[in-house]
Write a structure and sequence with these properties.
heterodimer, A: 653 residues, alpha+beta, six-stranded antiparallel beta sheet, four-stranded antiparallel beta sheet, 26 helices, 44% helix, elongated, B: 560 residues, alpha/beta, Translation Initiation Factor Eif1, Rossmann fold, 23 strands, 36% helix
Chain lengths: 653, 560
């Protein structure tokens, strides 16, 4: 296995030449030819050890630098842009890039494949002594209170199952709910969906129904997708709840897997004993999430709002946010040891206790009509609801479910009535099925082999078999295996099955929430500057060395030598139009060059960071075209409008 | 918390309360929540109560604070009480006492005093109150005495309960006592729950009491409760009831159980119009008029007698025109008596507002368990449609379908079988359609009572039935209410008014008077027809009261 020292050497070797030598000169002084990159790196190692560089560099880090280093450690595949976004754009991009460049020159970070990493050289010490998550995710100590009830439960989803399948005419032709449906929901959920908060909750539930594909539209009515309900029923409560919560906070079925990982990690990372201001919470969520759809501050803020709506997070009186202490993923919606989760009364009222399991309540919801959803859900069984239930399941399963779940056997009068309704409803039956017609020879084979016995819906006449459309593909394969190859006279495609997207369970972030005290700086800049004064330098060399001292990349007097400055042409300003134009032209030709440009707009000096691409001549004008960073959008400016242009050489951004 | 630590009450977010009947603390919780909530239904396992503005204002008028209510809920609630429920309770109770009615020096004028400029401005701007309230400044409105009820009703709609401090009118005094032994020779005493109901109404006799509705199961002795109220108030009383038979029953009961001489009890009906200090009248005579344009001449009965109390028997049947008069007589003490406050016209709210809020309600099964009403077994017997009617039924419209199902000829065979099973019992056969009932009466050779049966003839039939001379009588819907048949223990319902829950309950009520044997209620329904659906709806009230229907399917082959 490659050790950290070798890894660092390898990184150094892969740096672009011009950048490599600039860096080496800063530490080793003027480099004489011929040179060998490997030797130079070894020399650098000796230098760093000899002058106790690690301690000096790390001790001189500013609070801002520590913040950036800490963020690099937490962000998934960090880039200058993602660090900028991590801080919600509060720190100007140019300033951030400047800081990153200094950290790169201090050998603390490096870039590989467009991503920024902590350099292996100091990584161990940085992780041990420097990282300061308590500073990055500033939080306040908090004593957990009573918390808020978790309203997103299996019982809520079951109530929507009942509501949707037992109500007619809920949909517009576009597939959206009609106003009438919303009015009904307000009545059926008098507490939950009340007022403005209620609307937000309802929208979240709508997304759950949609993103989990719990229903399909069939002739303007909604029909449960059995395969999804089955899959959800077979999950444990924790996983299922994560699917629900995540589906409510995302815009698409396709993001679901990532979103589940994020929500799980948010819950497992955020302690109930700390509370956060929204800005710090946003940073934490960015660190927790690998979800590409969670990009941009407003989207993350919406996500936080969703988590608040779901009561995963709660807002405290001082405006800080913490995790709801009631929420316990390992015991979501506790059942208090009560497995008898259904109450059925002689008046055909059915009540679900709040901890009813989706699997248990599914069939009952198919046969019962929702009357009110609250802490306890109230439903009723009537003839219509039973007939509807019979189109989706069978009565025996319903009766068995109720008998298993209620503490008393279902009463005789209810069973008899249900059977009577079933009997009456089956006097005329409408099937939607694929029809298989066989002659007597083939039918003989079918009967003898029993090959599709469990797929046959009905055998209404000799040689005529009805098979569920979704089972027909399986049936056909089985039939072909016994030489029955039906000629397909059907044009319709079998119904597409849907599966739940999977998710990866990632470990929570382990964070030391207490802010680490930053040790006082060893301030030797003054003496270093005095050293600079002592040697004879040109004005440009003097300025360059002074800057290096101020930036902290010179930390020992041994670095102060005449030959380290590369006095290149890196800044042009004022009326010297030609100088600006030439600097831009040079930058375009050199890889890894960026331009900082200043210009006046609306009586204010504006700054932009540009990846220059080309200069276009338009009459007398010269237009600079490039990519504006970090937004990565096309950018153009008349060069005569630029008041200052600065060339920045970096591998970081 | 584990299951054994479960408390009995679930406070739902919409302020309804689910009370777990099987919890050891059920009884004490029920006692504590009753003063500020209304019982909605009480089926076998879980009873439902509702906290309403009216129930809270009633509680407030009895001096109960929002904190006390919150404490009771916290004490019994299985889960934390939703914050919004506590907030609503505080808010609604907080409105009580912001407006109060008081007398003025002018007997015909009252004043409404409000406690803030904001409310004063709001009420001044209300269109519905414009002709009723006269702004007098200084947070005071004046109103006519006669508008007292209407104003209260309107203000209630606006969410402002009125604390009515204006004294109720004292009628002419009329003194009487209960007998210890009735005229018929039985020992007489008032039962505990009847006393509770009476006290809930009379209260401390201070402002805010003296009007209200008492809900008691059929057979629980509502008449006794009414008489108890009369005895407490000792004043001239007008009793309004449903029909002449009921008028006679009231008169008989008063004469039997009190020392009021018969000659001091007036009968005000279509047959006789005698006004005495104690007068019993029918609703029908009150709302009689020559034609739709005319005045109601008998409304004067309310105004002419100096009544200190009006009793509305079977108040759920209070005819709409009487509402108006009731609104005018808000100064008189008034009590409504009913078993089933369900109105198909949805006017339950008006009854509460005009007669007075529900002051007492008791689950039927609670009285049955204590033996105060008979234990009743309900059966629904289903039978196939008559073969000849199948096609007729299939092509008939909805209404006709119901009639064909109701008049299924197999029902007669079932009645005969049931009568055979209950040879020693007094049986009522109750139905909706006179043709059907005539046919049944003819076949089983039993007397028939319909709306057209003259009163004297009815009385003879009832008398024979009571004496056991007749074992079976066939009755139309006239028997739905106020027929005192102490010895009937079996009722067979052959047809009814579609899905009327109230009718079903009242019909069961005919056999609920406590007796030595249990009672049986049979409802015969044609299988796989609309009658089945209507029957399910009819049974709702009773199943919500905890009754179970045993459903049986009878084979037509056994009926041949």
């Amino acid at each position: 296995m490659i050790n950290s020292s070798d890894k660092w050497k390898h990184i150094m070797l892969t740096l672009p030449d011009n950048y490599f030598f600039e860096l080496m000169k800063n530490y080793l002084g003027k480099i004489e030819t011929p040179f060998n990159k490997h030797d130079l790196i070894e020399k650098l190692v000796v230098f760093l050890i000899k002058y106790n560089a690690e301690e000096k560099i790390l001790k001189s880090l500013s609070e801002k630098e520590i913040l950036f280093i800490t963020s690099i450690n937490f962000i998934y595949k960090p880039t200058a842009k993602s660090i900028y976004e991590f801080f919600s754009g509060v720190i100007p991009f140019i300033e951030l890039c400047d800081n990153l460049k200094v950290l790169e020159e201090k050998l603390i970070i490096y870039s590989d494949n467009g991503h920024i990493y902590l350099s292996p050289l100091f990584e161990e010490s940085i992780k041990r002594d420097i990282l300061n998550p308590g500073l990055l995710y500033k939080s306040e100590p908090h004593t957990p209170g009573a918390g808020k009830m978790i309203w997103l439960t299996d019982s809520l989803i079951l109530s929507f199952l009942s509501f949707i399948i037992h109500q007619k005419d809920l949909l517009k032709s576009s597939g959206a709910f009609k106003k009438r449906a919303y009015n009904q929901i307000e009545t059926l959920y008098p507490h939950l969906f009340n007022g403005e908060d209620g609307k937000v909750k309802l929208e979240l539930v709508r997304k759950i129904l949609h993103n989990l594909r719990l229903f399909r539209i069939n002739d303007n009515t909604l029909v449960p997708r059995t395969e999804i309900w089955d899959q959800l029923s077979n999950l444990n409560r924790e996983e299922r709840w994560l699917y629900f919560a995540s589906a409510g906070t995302t815009e698409s079925y396709h993001n679901l897997g990532e979103r589940i990982s994020t929500i799980k990690r948010v819950i497992e990372t955020i302690p109930t004993t700390r509370s956060f201001y929204p800005e710090n919470l946003k940073k934490l969520i960015k660190a927790v999430s690998n979800d590409p759809s969670l990009n941009g501050n407003s989207i993350i803020m919406e996500f936080i709002d969703d988590l608040l709506t779901l009561n995963i997070l709660i807002t405290l009186e001082d405006g800080t946010i913490t995790r709801n202490p009631i929420l316990d993923l390992s015991n979501i919606n506790p059942d208090y040891g009560d497995n008898q989760t259904v109450i059925i009364q002689p008046n055909f009222d059915v009540t679900f206790k709040p901890w009813i399991d989706l699997k248990d309540g599914y069939i009952i919801a198919l046969f019962s009509n929702l009357k009110k959803m609250d802490i306890y859900t109230e439903l009723e069984i009537n003839k219509e609801s039973v007939i509807k239930g019979l189109t989706l399941s069978n009565l025996d399963s319903f009766i068995t479910s109720i008998n298993n779940l209620s503490f008393q056997e279902i009463s005789h009068n209810i069973i008899l009535t249900l059977k009577e309704w079933e009997k009456e409803s089956t006097k005329a039956i409408h099937y939607q099925a694929s029809v298989l017609i066989l002659d007597s020879d083939k039918e003989y084979i079918l009967k003898e082999t029993g090959i599709i016995d469990n797929l046959i819906l009905l055998n209404p006449a000799k040689g005529v078999y009805l098979i569920k459309p979704e089972d027909f593909k399986t049936a056909r394969n089985l039939l072909e295996s016994v030489d029955i190859i039906p000629v397909d006279m059907s044009q319709s495609e079998p119904t597409e099955l849907t599966t739940l997207p999977s998710f990866i369970s990632r470990k929570p972030l382990i964070i030391e929430w207490k802010e680490r005290e930053i040790s006082p700086k060893t301030e030797n800049k003054k003496s270093l500057l005095q050293e600079v004064e002592k040697i004879s330098l040109t004005k440009e060399e003097y300025e360059d060395l002074k800057k290096r001292v101020e930036r902290g990349i010179i930390f020992t007097k041994e670095q102060i030598t005449k030959g380290i400055s590369k006095i290149d042409f890196s800044e042009a300003k004022g009326i010297n139009y030609q100088a600006k134009l030439r600097l831009i032209e040079v930058s375009i030709k050199t890889p890894n060059n960026r331009l900082e440009i200043n210009f006046v707009e609306d009586f204010e000096i504006k700054k932009e960071l540009i990846l220059p691409e080309k200069i276009e001549k338009q009459g007398d004008l010269r237009i600079l075209h490039g990519i504006k960073l970090p937004q990565e959008v096309a950018y153009s400016i008349d060069i005569s409008k630029i008041s200052l242009v600065k060339r920045i050489h970096t591998t970081l951004f | 918390m584990n299951i054994s630590e479960f408390k009995p009450l679930i406070v739902q977010g919409d302020s309804s309360l689910l009370l777990d009947v099987h919890n050891p603390d059920f009884e004490s919780a029920r006692g504590d929540i009753t003063p500020f909530s209304e019982l909605e239904k009480s089926p076998e396992h879980m009873h439902t109560y509702k906290i309403t503005p009216l129930s809270l204002w009633n509680a407030a008028s009895a001096g109960i604070t929002h904190q006390e209510i919150s404490d009771i809920l916290d004490n019994y609630s299985r889960f934390p009480v939703p914050d919004n429920v506590k907030f609503t309770i505080k808010d609604i109770i907080g409105r009580y006492g912001k407006l109060y009615l008081d007398k003025t020096q002018d007997d015909m004028t009252l004043q409404l005093i409000v406690d803030s400029d904001m409310i004063y401005a709001e009420l001044s701007a209300q269109k519905s109150l414009k002709n009723l309230l006269r702004p007098m400044g200084e947070l005071i409105f004046q109103l006519n005495l006669l508008d007292r009820g209407v104003v209260k009703q309107e203000l209630l709609k606006l969410g402002y309960p009125v604390k009515d401090l204006a004294p109720l009118k004292d009628g002419d005094p009329y003194n009487f006592k209960f007998r210890d032994v009735t005229l018929s020779g039985r020992t007489f005493g008032i039962r505990d729950y009847q006393k509770e109901a009476c006290e809930a109404f009379v209260g401390n006799n201070k402002p805010g009491t003296g009007f209200g509705t008492l809900v008691l199961p059929c057979g629980a002795g509502k008449t006794i409760v009414g008489m108890n109220v009369m005895e407490k108030l000792q004043t001239n009383t007008l009793i309004l009831t449903t029909n002449v038979a009921a008028v006679h029953q009231w008169i008989d009961e008063l004469a039997d159980k009190t020392d009021i001489p018969r000659e001091e009890i007036g009968e005000y009906t279509g047959d006789r119009k005698v006004v005495k200090p104690i007068t019993v009248a029918t609703y029908q005579i009150l709302v009689w008029r020559k034609d739709k344009e005319s005045e109601f001449p008998h409304f004067d009965l309310f105004r002419t007698g100096n009544w200190g109390l009006i009793i509305y028997d079977e108040v759920h049947l209070l005819p709409a025109p009487v509402f108006k008069v009731t609104a005018e007589i808000q100064a008189v003490r008034r009590v409504g008596l009913t078993a089933t406050l369900i109105r198909e016209d949805g006017a339950e709210g008006d009854v509460f507002t005009l007669v007075g809020p529900k002051r007492y309600d008791v689950p039927w099964k609670q009285l049955e368990n204590k033996g105060w009403i008979a234990t009743a077994y309900c059966h629904e017997i289903r039978v196939d449609i008559y073969e000849d009617d199948k096609l007729k039924y299939a092509i008939a419209d909805k209404r006709k379908k119901f009639r064909i199902a109701s008049e299924n000829p197999w029902k007669v065979s079932i009645i005969k079988k049931l009568l055979n099973m209950h040879k020693d019992d007094q049986v009522l056969v109750i139905g909706q359609y006179v043709d059907q009932l005539q046919e049944i009466a003819k076949i089983i050779k039993a007397p028939l009572i319909t709306g057209k049966t003259p009163n004297p003839e009815r009385e003879v039939i009832f008398d024979n039935f009571k004496k056991g001379i007749e074992k079976v009588i066939v009755v139309s819907k006239v028997a739905n209410f106020a027929i005192n048949l102490p010895d009937a223990s079996v009722a067979i319902q052959v047809s009814g008014t579609f899905g009327s829950r109230q009718e079903e309950a009242q019909r069961l009520g005919r056999i609920l008077r406590p007796k030595e044997k249990d009672s049986f209620f049979y409802s015969i329904v044609t299988r796989h027809t609309t009658e089945e659906t209507f029957a399910a709806n009819r049974q709702k009230f009773l199943t919500e009261q905890g009754y179970k229907y045993n459903i049986e399917i009878w084979n037509t082959k056994d009926l041949m």
